[in-house]
Design a protein that fits this description.
474 residues; mainly beta; Porin; 18-stranded antiparallel β-barrel; two-stranded antiparallel ribbon; 8% helix; globular
């Protein structure tokens, strides 16, 4: 009898474990925003030359409205956490309906433990956007400094990524990642532009008491087929880059940290008749501050990256100053970005050609989160300036002269988690038509075991806030 009872207990336990492992916890988030604003350059129209005739289109001012709903659903089981997110954006002008734009973004991610201290991630993403769409899909404190072609070309991108992290010991972690993406730009009165990008990397991180040391090696490849632009035929490019990087992050105090990095890369065009291998250095540095009062960072980076809009790789020097801070003893918050970037042609020239574009960005916002509401109100101003590239860059995609001011008032909504200071979380956003396709940064959702104490605290505060509101917003 005892043996039978034991067998029955084991079988019941296994059945219960199977049922528990099959249980799925579903979480969801609906968000959206509605805004009204004005701009002095509806479609990112280039500045006309001084000797331009009357038929040349100049930048046009107009008012606009923007609607951006989004939804994200997360499924968590004992073996994996998966998420599916979709976001939509519609921008409509009052006087120039021909410049109205629609953008879509869809993303899927999964994160699963595959062994002790080992996690596997996988992601898929797709986006459609117009080049003339305002770069307002991220918060004011995270605005990137990227070039734009101007005009109203449609950009379609799809991407896939995979990553693996393994804890070799309590202080050593090994990581691996691969990614691939395809960009297709519909160009009016010209052949469509196509770009294929693939990358792979392996890294090792050593965590000390106050320092984190990271070594990594990787390869990037950008292939752009032959393209006819007007009467000019642009040859096929197959640009390959091998990289090696070292980064040192130092936590000087609870609120302050610095990051320094150096690296080297070699690049070549595998499609060129005479392949020439070009070495080039890379470096970066940042000063970071963050606590309950706010966050701020001053960063500088010199690197070489594939560039979707320019159809080539560029050597970029970028400096940015970012910050976000809730105003003490109030429900107001502020966020801002100031940045400058110069892009130079890297291949197939001598490795460091004349500037293709210089970009300046200034973006600032003031937000207000009413107590016991599920909305956030924001007033935002953005200034973007692009200086034309040098005419010496013969055959390269020199960017035009552009300038744009924009102001917008936005109401953001979120449920069941309400908007937070800064406006960046918990919202799902449409991926911007960015120059540098970096789908490696699209992380899959964290499993509960991977969430650190700070993230646990944030989730606990959100649940408590939701329970206090009772789901009614009162």
């Amino acid at each position: 009898m005892r043996i039978g009872a034991t067998v029955f207990s084991v079988a019941a336990g296994l059945a219960w474990a199977g049922e528990a492992s099959a249980q799925v916890a579903v979480d969801w988030q609906v968000s959206g925003s509605a805004g009204i604003g004005v701009t002095d350059n509806v479609a990112n129209t280039p500045e006309p030359p001084e000797d331009a005739g009357p038929d040349v289109v100049a930048p046009q001012p107009d008012g606009f409205v923007n609607l951006s709903p989004a939804i994200e659903v997360t499924f968590e089981t004992a073996g994996a956490t998966q998420s599916v997110g979709w976001a939509f954006s519609y921008l409509a002008y009052f006087l120039h309906p021909e410049a109205n734009t629609i953008s879509n973004g869809l993303a899927y991610g999964v994160r699963a433990p595959v062994g002790p201290g080992t996690e596997l991630t996988f992601g898929l993403s797709g986006a459609q956007a117009n080049l003339s769409t305002f770069n307002l899909v991220s918060s004011a404190s995270t605005t990137p400094v990227t070039p734009t072609e101007g005009g109203d070309s449609q950009v379609f991108t799809i991407g896939v990524s995979q990553g693996l992290t393994a804890e070799v010991s309590e202080t050593v972690m090994v990581s691996q990642g691969i990614a691939a993406s395809y960009g297709h730009t519909l160009v009016a009165d010209a052949e469509d532009a196509k770009t294929y990008i693939a990358s792979g990397t392996i890294g090792v991180t050593k965590q000390l008491e106050r320092d984190a040391l990271t070594w990594s090696v990787g390869t990037d490849a950008q292939v752009t087929p032959e393209q006819v632009v007007g009467a000019v035929t642009q040859a096929e490019l197959a640009q390959i880059f091998h990289r090696a990087d070292f980064n040192w992050t130092r936590q000087w105090a609870l609120d302050w940290s610095t990051t320094l990095g150096v690296g080297a890369l070699v690049g070549y065009d595998a499609a060129a008749p005479d392949i020439e291998v070009l070495p080039h250095p890379a470096w970066r540095g940042s000063l970071n501050y963050g606590n309950d009062v706010g966050t701020a960072a001053l960063a500088y980076e010199h690197t070489v990256q594939p560039n979707l809009l320019l159809r080539q790789a560029t050597a970029n020097d970028a400096v940015t100053l970012t910050g976000a801070m809730p105003i003490p003893k109030s429900t107001f918050d502020i966020g801002a970005t100031a940045g400058y970037q110069v892009s130079r042609e890297f291949l197939p020239t001598t490795g460091f050609g004349p500037p293709l574009a210089q970009n300046v960005i200034a973006d600032a916002a003031v937000g207000y989160v009413p107590k016991s509401w599920f909305v956030r109100l924001e007033v935002r101003y953005q200034y973007a300036r692009q200086f034309a590239g040098s005419a010496e860059a013969e055959g390269a995609a020199v960017q035009p002269e552009l300038e744009r001011h924009a102001g917008i008032f936005t109401v953001e909504f979120g449920y069941p988690d309400s908007p937070t200071a800064g406006g960046a979380s918990p919202f799902v956003v449409v991926p911007a038509p960015t120059a540098n396709v970096d789908i490696m940064r699209q992380r899959a959702p964290e499993t509960e075991q991977a969430v650190d104490e700070n993230q646990r605290k944030e989730e606990r505060e959100k649940r408590e806030d939701r329970e206090r509101r009772g789901g009614s917003g009162d």
